[in-house]
Specification:
Elements: H1 17-31, H2 35-53, H3 58-73, H4 77-94, H5 101-114, H6 118-136, H7 141-156, H8 160-178, H9 183-198, H10 202-216, H11 224-237, H12 241-255, H13 262-276, H14 281-297, H15 303-315
Helix pairs in contact: 1-2, 2-3, 3-4, 4-5, 5-6, 5-7, 6-7, 7-8, 7-9, 8-9, 9-10, 9-11, 10-11, 11-12, 11-13, 12-13, 13-14, 14-15
């Protein structure tokens, strides 16, 4: 997901009108959460862009990157990695000193991380961070953004201590460069909330997620379902079941309005299942079963999450009905 880096604009008078129109419409579809439709439209214009500008042109690279990103938003990491790799190779061949190469590298790192390949993820992430520092300086907001993305990768392998250190370092850079009310900063608040949750510091986790919401909610940010899910989990762990249920019902409703990552939806479903508990037992089991299916489909990256859902389902077997 494009949590921190700005989405490339494709408005340009030198593009043939029909291509320009379709590319701009694809951007709109993306921001509306219609990721598959955005992907389809970018794939439609890619052959014409390649024919007009050549396979190494920045417009072609940008379109490949957008296709990969839209694929990652629905957890299609095989295709995201393929298109992201194609974009990176073309950018390197065109201009190995292009500062945007760091953006492509960090994106590939995230795709590999979510796909369960932490070694490649860390390699791309480290290369990206080094390139940002070299080209932009160690205090540039893009360096802080890269720290945040590396923290996300650390959480993917449950390395909470490393995630915390990276997020805190990135937060300091981003707050200095962008201010505390910037969406990029808010996303780091949310990640630090996840860190606090993993450390068992549930009131601190709630506070971080609420800080994130205070920034993201007024602008209807696309990360709202994720942040609400994280907040609901922390509220539930802190014993605030009623608040957690309201928060998670809202997260679930928002997810229903956009196309998204099945595993992130699984996180919302499982948290909501646990919040519902005996008050709506059959619905809770259905939600947990859907979460388990999503986690199993997600492969080795989600082994721990799948195990947790299985344990919950085993502890909450189907109730017998009496005829």
């Amino acid at each position: 997901h494009r949590d921190l880096h700005s989405f490339p604009t494709r408005r340009s008078s030198d593009l043939p009108w029909l291509l320009n129109n379709e590319a701009n419409t694809a951007v709109t579809e993306y921001w509306l959460g219609h990721y598959s439709e955005a992907r389809r439209m970018w794939l439609d214009v890619l052959p014409a862009l390649t024919a007009i500008y050549g396979p190494l042109h920045p417009r072609v690279v940008s379109t490949l990157d957008s296709i990969a990103d839209s694929e990652s938003c629905v957890a299609d990491y095989d295709h995201a990695i393929a298109h992201g790799t194609q974009a990176l190779q073309a950018a390197l061949a065109n201009d190995p000193d292009d500062a945007r190469i760091a953006d492509l590298e960090i994106s590939l790192g995230l795709y590999y991380s979510s796909h369960g390949d932490p070694e490649r993820a860390q390699r791309y992430g480290a290369d990206s961070l080094a390139r940002y520092v070299k080209t932009l300086g160690p205090q540039h907001p893009s360096v802080g953004a890269a720290d945040y993305q590396l923290a996300r990768m650390a959480l993917d392998v449950h390395d909470v201590a490393r995630a915390k250190a990276l997020a805190e370092r990135g937060l300091a850079i981003l707050e200095r460069g962008l201010g505390a009310r910037h969406p990029r900063v808010a996303l780091v608040f949310d990640l630090l909330g996840v860190v606090a949750y993993e450390e068992g510091r549930y009131p601190a986790a709630i506070a971080e997620h609420e800080r994130a919401l205070a920034v993201l909610e007024p602008i209807h940010h696309m990360a709202l379902p994720d942040v609400l899910t994280n907040l609901g989990r922390a509220q539930l762990a802190a014993g605030r079941r009623d608040a957690a249920l309201a928060t998670l019902e809202r997260a679930s409703a928002l997810r229903g309005k956009i196309e998204g990552d099945p595993q992130m939806e699984g996180a919302t479903n499982f948290a909501l299942a646990r919040a519902l508990g005996p008050t709506a037992f059959e619905r809770a089991r259905r939600l947990a079963e859907r979460a388990l299916a999503a986690y199993v489909a997600g492969g080795k990256r989600y082994v721990r999450e799948a195990r947790e859902v299985k344990q919950w389902l085993q502890s909450n077997p189907p109730r017998r009905t009496h005829g």
